[in-house]
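Forwarding these from the shared drive since the link keeps breaking.
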Amino acid sequence: MKNSAMIDMEKNVGFLLAKAYQRASAIFKEEFEGYELTPQQFGLLGFLWQEDGLSQAELSARSQIDRTTIGGLIGRLEKEGLVKRLVHPHDRRAYQVCLTELGKAMEDQLAPLALKTLARFTAPLTDREVETLRHLLNKLRS
């Protein structure tokens, strides 16, 4: 028997995670229609709503997005007028990413959409299953 015959793709964790991510992205796209944001850009805004003025390196570490990619994401948020990069007050080689007034105001519009998106995505699960999923995913990412 070939090794590939032993792999049941419909039970493969990597395949299932990829399919779940695709479903989450599709729901995000529907709920955020009219906003020029990707899930990754929204995530960066979320970190900045929690703590404005993070350095680009801190955003990279918290979001677990590599430094090259994070620069492009921040650049697109800048073009949309949601953030601005300033020279970091304690490290002239680094940038501090700050929300603009528009970026701050968007929290009131986007946070409820994010909650609605999450509710749609996790609708098949009980509250306990959602907590278990969160716990397991945190274990896998560390």
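-- next protein --
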Amino acid sequence: MIWLHLLWFAILSIGNAEILVTAVNRLHSKKIHEPKLRHVRHLHDLLIPLWPVWLLVVIGCIRPGVLFNETSPTEVWLQQPLMIQAWMAICMAGFAGFSWSVIRYWIHRPARQQIEFKSTVVNYKRELGATITGEGPYSSLLNFPMNECFKVEFTERTFQLDRLPREWDGLTILHLTDLHFTGTIDLPFFEAVFERAAQLDYDIAVITGDILDSDELYDWLPRTLGQLNAPLGNYFILGNHDWGLDSDRIRQAICNLGWRNVAGTLQTLDIAGKRLAIGGSERPWMGCHPAFDAVPDNTFRLLLSHTPDNLSWARRQRVDLMLSGHNHGGQVVIPGIGPAYSPSVHGCRYAAGVFQSKSTLLFVGRGLSGKHPLRIGATPEVTRIILKATSSR
């Protein structure tokens, strides 16, 4: 009987953690400033271990002391106050949700529109040594065992899209996101990554937000973003971490480097006689969605959205390709379980990868860094996208 009780305790503890993690993930998707969110995380950090301790001490050892008698789990449940019974029921539902998320992680495959994938991992810690570690916040995490924050995966993904004009077959997009200049990972790291990215073959360069985390690092922009010069233009939006700083100043500094701000607006390009509309969304934190309904139906639509949570809106706007970041791949992927934390209304469903929603293809990049410099199983990522037309067009 004791093993049955321990299993029951474990299920309730996992369910409790799932409920709290789910709440934190959803709250971090909202328009809430970081200082308020920090208090929520502190409460979350406290309640996750306290619940199983309470179960073991109070129910397991004191009242009714199920670890030392033959009381069945059902009897224990019925002996508890109504509020405790209600929370146990919620925890059981949380365990069911946890189980489904693990199953979804195991069965997920990239959308069929991704027809080819290649990658190269570069270990910048090995190449550059101690010069890439700074003294910014949470620097102690840099020495955490198995931390992969200096291993950057340069991926090449080929997407075959139904509405892509044949004239654009082979069009390339360089996608970066979530740079998070904090000073913890020092400038030489970012300079080296951008230098390698600049050497790739690309027609369009895009960045999908969260560029600065410190007001003292504006001088990093010319030495990083300034290295990119795409033939068809560089385009950017900002993210929620930029929203916490002087976003107008960040925007102007990047525009001064020749980048084009598409937040809440559209840039229309004529490429080989066909029209491409590039729009950007920083919702829910700043501005408005771009007016895709104002462009002709035969215009190919590319959306830069900091969060993948705007996917439903993009689908209604008949966006062909949506590029996002924000979720960092979860930063820490638990073997066999998947990521736990992802600041999204969908939890970890869109932590990273390629997803199809009706006519809209979504790619979520893992980003290059983060406020907390810890990566396990979710290495930083720079992506070169190759677009291919279907044979029917």
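The radius of gyration is 23 Å. Residues 266 and 279 are 4 Å apart (CA to CA).

- D.
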